[in-house]
Amino acid sequence: MTEYVTSADGTRIAYQVAGDAGPAVVVVDGAMCHRAFGPSGPLAAELAGAHRVFSYDRRGRGESGSGGPYAVEREVEDLAAVVAAAGGRATLLGVSSGAALALRAAGSGIGVERVVAYEPPFSTTDEQRARFKEYRAGVERDVLAGEPGDAVARFMTFVGSPEPMVAQLRESPVWPAFVAVAPTLVNDAEVLDGAEGAPVPGALLAGLPVPVLVADGGDSPALLRDAAAATAAAAGAEYRTLAGQTHEVAPDVLGPMVAGFIARG
User: Which region is the signal sequence (predicted)?
Assistant: First the structure.
């Protein structure tokens, strides 16, 4: 059942709860994803046996409002409202750019108890930072020009989708759902500190006051695994590699790792 909270700036944020007992977990989706499309639903189902799992639509996606001018602080306030609905204390489970958002929220005093960050896609080389800056500028141009479909195509190409596959997707029934959330690609770039090319935020990570677990997939590209390792090192965090997994991690593999981390306290 969909429920709603109101963020600090008045934006309505949609969420739902799986499970009725145990420690609270808030799942933070990455780019293009929300409750109806992405990992948060399957992860919630996997964890619901022993946890109360809150999955929500980040602003501008699904049933949540967009609010006014974007700032990462507004998304932290959205998380604060969801954590408050969870009882004021929760573990954040972030995937991809959602992991970057969870890490940025962890030290903000909103009741985060710990963070599990799966493959936050920070940049670790000058080449990656330059490529990310070019991508971000292009996505911003697409959105401002009223071409959200071009923004989606740019994102998919950026993350490695072959151009023929992108062309096929443009003709598929799911394409309008992608286009609907395309403006939020700009938001995700900001979460990753896009002005600087999405570097690992070393100073922020070093000061986090909560336990952090960073994980990656053993079959993921080297650039994502390098980013996960660098994030864990900067945060002084536990670092785990899930054998046989990719960026599209299986809930029945990631879920038990998350549950074990929470159980250790």
Answer: none
Q: Which helix (H) or strand (E) holds 235?
A: helix 222-235
The model's pTM: 0.97
> Using an 8 Å Cβ cutoff, are 61 and 19 in contact?
no
Which segments of 176-264 are extended strands (E)? 212-217, 238-242
Q: Where are the beta strands (DSSP E) in the chain?
A: 3-6, 12-18, 24-28, 52-56, 90-95, 112-118, 212-217, 238-242
| Residues 84 and 206 reside in one and the same domain | yes
Cα separation, 50 vs 92, whole angstroms: 15
The parent domain of residue 88 ranges over 3-122+200-263
Q: Are residues 75 and 130 in the same domain?
A: no
Residues 57, 219: Cα–Cα separation, whole Å = 28
The single-letter DSSP state of residue 152 is H
pLDDT in tens, 64-84: 999 999 999 999 999 999 999
Residues 108 and 25 in one domain: yes
Q: Burial, 41: exposed, middle or buried (Cβ in 10 Å; 0-12, 13-18, 19+)? A: buried
Statement to judge: residues 87 and 29 lie in one domain: yes
> Whole-angstrom distance between the N-terminal and C-terminal Cα of the chain?
30
Instruction: Return the structure tokens found at 234.
Output: 């900067």
* Same structural domain, 130 and 257: no
Residues 178 and 209 in one domain: no
- Give pLDDT, residue 265: 78
Q: How many domains does the chain have?
A: 2
Token digits of residue 112: 């985060």
Q: Supply the CATH number for residue 42's domain.
A: 3.40.50.1820
Radius of gyration of the chain from Cα atoms? Answer: 17
Please count the other Cβ atoms lying within 10 Å of the Cβ belonging to residue 60: 21
